[in-house]
Amino acid sequence: MSTLIVVGSLGLDTLETPFDRAERVLGGSAAYFALAAKLYTDVGIVAVVGDDFPEAHVDLLAGKGIDLSGLQREPGETFFWAGRYHYDMNARDTLETRLGVFADFRPTLPDSYRDAPYVFLANILPSLQISVQEQVRRPRLVVLDSMNLWIETQKDRLIEAMRRSNVMTINDEEARQYAGTFSLRAAARTIMEQGPRAVIIKKGEHGVILISEQGVFGAPALLLEDVKDPTGAGDSFAGGFLGYLSETGDTSFTGVKRALIHGTAVASFTVEALGAERLATLTREEVEARYSEFIEFTSFEAASISAAVG
Amino acid sequence: MSTLIVVGSLGLDTLETPFDRAERVLGGSAAYFALAAKLYTDVGIVAVVGDDFPEAHVDLLAGKGIDLSGLQREPGETFFWAGRYHYDMNARDTLETRLGVFADFRPTLPDSYRDAPYVFLANILPSLQISVQEQVRRPRLVVLDSMNLWIETQKDRLIEAMRRSNVMTINDEEARQYAGTFSLRAAARTIMEQGPRAVIIKKGEHGVILISEQGVFGAPALLLEDVKDPTGAGDSFAGGFLGYLSETGDTSFTGVKRALIHGTAVASFTVEALGAERLATLTREEVEARYSEFIEFTSFEAASISAAVG
Fold first, then answer.
1. Would you say residue B303 has pLDDT above 60?
2. Cα B85 from chain centroid (whole Å)
3. Residues of chain A whose pLDDT is less than 50?
4. What was the pLDDT predicted at B18?
5. N or C: where does chain A have the smaller number of CB atoms within 10 Å of the terminal CB?
6. How far apart are CA A50 and CA A30, in angstroms?
7. pLDDT tens-digit readout, B97-145
8. Are A229 and A273 in contact, with CB atoms under 8 Å apart?
9. Which residue of B140, B297, B300 to mutate against A (max A Cβ within 10 Å)?
10. B220 and A209 in contact by Cβ < 8 A?
11. Phi/psi at B266 (nearest 5 deg)?
12. Between A183, A214, A223, which is nearest B226 by CB?
C-alpha cells in the first residue's frame, strides 16, 4: 500500500533554454511529484503512457521504488510537450502540445491505492481529479493543484474538486484570476469558502505563501546561483511538501510550514538542471542540507555576527 | 546636526489607482524617506522645491521635526509627477512628468549636514549623488539607490557613485539589467566589484534580498489585506532601514538584517493608503507591532501549534 498517491501526467518533454536543450526527456507532473515525494515516503503514480514511452523512464521510476501499479499503458503516443524558456526564466512559450493517449485518460486506482491517506491531484482536467476523489476511501489529506485553463473553461467542475480537497495549491496570478481580486488574502478566502482549509500560493522564484485557518506564512525561494530550467518546480515542490507531511503525519500549522520549506528545498534542486535530471540523483541528505541553508537564509534574530558592512 | 541625511526629490504627485485619486499631494523620494526615517532618528533633507510648493507640506515635514535646513526654494514650479496604477499594482504608467526647478537642482549641504554619519542618496542623477558624496566629510554608511534610466544613460557616472557607496539598493529587474545576467547572486557580485559591500535587491510585493560579503538573506513582504498605492514603497523602505541602522549603529550582518525588516514593516504601511497619507500618521509602536507580525509570518521552527489543517 502506498502512503501517498499522485494522479497527473507522465510525458515526454522537449525543453529549450537559452543555455541548453533536451529532447523527449521524462516529464509530466506525476514524474516530478513522485521523484520528489519518494525522498520521504512510499508513493504511487496514477497516469497513462503510450507505447512509445521509453522503458528507461519506467526503469528510472521503478528503480527508485515508486509504485507503478496505477500506471496505464495504452496503444498510441505518450503526452508530449515542447517548451522554450527565455533569458527571463519567468516566461515560457509552449511550442507544441500533443495529448496522445492522455486525451482519453480515465484514472483507475488499483485497490492498493484506495486507502492511501495522502493524495495529490496534479493539474489535470477537474473531472479526472473528481474521479480520483471518488475512488479513494478515507484520505487524511487531499491536495489539489489547478491552473488558469480550468478556471476559464471548467470552473464549476473545479469548484466541485475544491469542495472535496483540504489544501489547494495555485500560483499567484491564477489565485487573483479565480477570485477576481488583487488581494491574495481575499483570493485565498474565496478559495477556502469552497472547501480547502488552506491555500498555498506559488510564486516561482519569489517563493510561496501559506494562508490557512491557523494563520499566514511566507517563505522566499532560496537564492540560487543559477536557474537552468524551471520545468517541474511546482510539482516537485508539491512532492517535497506532501512527502514530508506523509512521513511525519504532522498536519499542524507548524508541521505544514516545515513541509513547505521541504518543498522549497526540493524544488530548488529541480530548477538547477534540465528536466528531472537533478531530481533523479537527489538524496535526502542534500535536501536536509538545503533545509538548513534555508533557515540561515531567513533568520534575522540569531546571535549577532559582528562583521561590519560599513 | 542630523544623524542621517537624504538627498532626493520633493514633489507634487497626482496619483490614480483603480480605487482612488489624489491631486498634487506631497511626494518625492526625500519626503517618503524622511517621514519613515524620522520614526527612528534625526533626519535632514537636501532637496529643492518651487514657489508653488504648499506651505502645508513644509509644515507637515517640519512639524515632524525633520530638518529642512538643506531645503532649497527656487522661483518656478515644483517637480510634478502624475501616474496611474492598474488593477495589477505591479504595473504603472507615468502620465506626466514636469521637472520644474528640479532640472537645475544643485544639492548644497548646509554645514550642519556635512558630518552626518548616515547618508541616503535617493534615485536621482548620479552626478548629483556624487556631488553629495563630495560634500559629506566622513560618513559611516552611504546607501545609494538607482534605476534603469541611469544604467542606460549614465553608467560611467553611476559606477563612480557606486565606488563611493557602502550599500546599493536596486530592484531585481534593474540589477539584472545592470549586470547582464539573470542570476541575482551574480548581478550582486558585479555591483559589489564596484565598491558596495552589500546589495539590497527590492522586489516590491515579493520582498527583499540582501547579498553582502557576510552572506545572503531573504525576506518576503508582509501579506497585506489590501495594497492601495505602491508609490513611495521603496523610499520609505529605505527610510525605515537606514533610520533603524542610524538609531542602533549596528551595521553587523544581523543588524542590517533587522534593519531590513524595519524597512519592510514601514513600507507595508505606506502602500496601505494613497501617497504619504499613512506615513504621516504612523507611529513607532505601530511599526514595532508589525515587526512582531513579520516574525510570526516567517517563523517555522517555533513550538508546534496543534490545530490540524487536514
1. no
2. 19
3. 302-310
4. 86
5. N
6. 15
7. 999 999 999 999 999 999 999 999 999 999 999 999 999 999 999 999 9
8. yes
9. B300
10. yes
11. -60, -45
12. A183
The CA distance from B83 to B17, in Å, is: 9
Residue A109 domain flag = yes
Q: Are A188 and A162 in contact (CB under 8 A)?
A: no
Residue in the structure block whose three cell numbers are 495529448: A99
| Facing A183 at nearest CB: one of B214, B225, B301 | B225
Residues B231-289: tens digit of each pLDDT: 999 999 999 999 999 999 999 999 999 999 999 999 999 999 999 999 999 999 999 99
Which pLDDT belongs to residue A303?
A: 36
* CATH code assigned at A56: 3.40.1190.20
Chain B: residue whose CA lies nearest to A307: B252
Q: Which amino acid is at A161?
A: A
C-alpha distances in angstroms, B36 versus B4, B117, B242?
12, 18, 9
Number of domains in chain A: 1
Strands A215-219, A208-212: pairing kind: antiparallel
Burial A135-171 (b: 16+ CB within 10 A, else e): bbeebbbbbbbbeeebbeebeebbbbbbebbbbbbbb
Question: pLDDT tens across B132-172, in order?
Answer: 999 999 999 999 999 999 999 999 999 999 999 999 999 99
User: For chain A, how many residues are written?
Assistant: 310
Domain extent, residue B223, equals 4-298
Output Rg (C-alpha) for chain A, integer angstroms.
19
Q: Which three cell numbers stand for residue A43?
A: 508513493
pTM recorded for the entire structure: 0.94
- Contact residues, chain A, for B192 at CB < 8 Å: none
Q: What is the ipTM of this complex?
A: 0.92
CA terminus-to-terminus distance, chain B? 59
- Contact yes or no for B70/B4 (Cβ under 8 A): no
Q: Is residue B304 part of a domain?
A: no
pLDDT for residue B309 is more than 90: no
Instruction: Check residue A100 and report its DSSP letter.
Output: G
Alpha-carbon distance of A188 to A168, in angstroms, equals 9
Chain B contact set for A305 (CB, 8 A)? 214-215, 252-254
Residue A146 — φ and ψ, nearest 5°?
Answer: -155, -175
Residue A304 lies in a domain: no
Looking at the domain assignment, is residue A9 inside a domain? yes
Residue numbers in A near B257 (CB within 8 A): 299-300
Residue by residue, what is the 3-state secondary structure of B106-145?
CCCCCHHHCCCCEEEECCCCHHHHHHHHHHCCCCCEEEEE
Do A34 and A8 contact (CB within 8 A), yes or no? no
Closest-CA distance, B18 to chain A, in angstroms, reads 11
CA separation for the pair B103, B84 (Å, rounded)? 23
Cross-chain Cβ contact B216/A140 below 8 Å: no
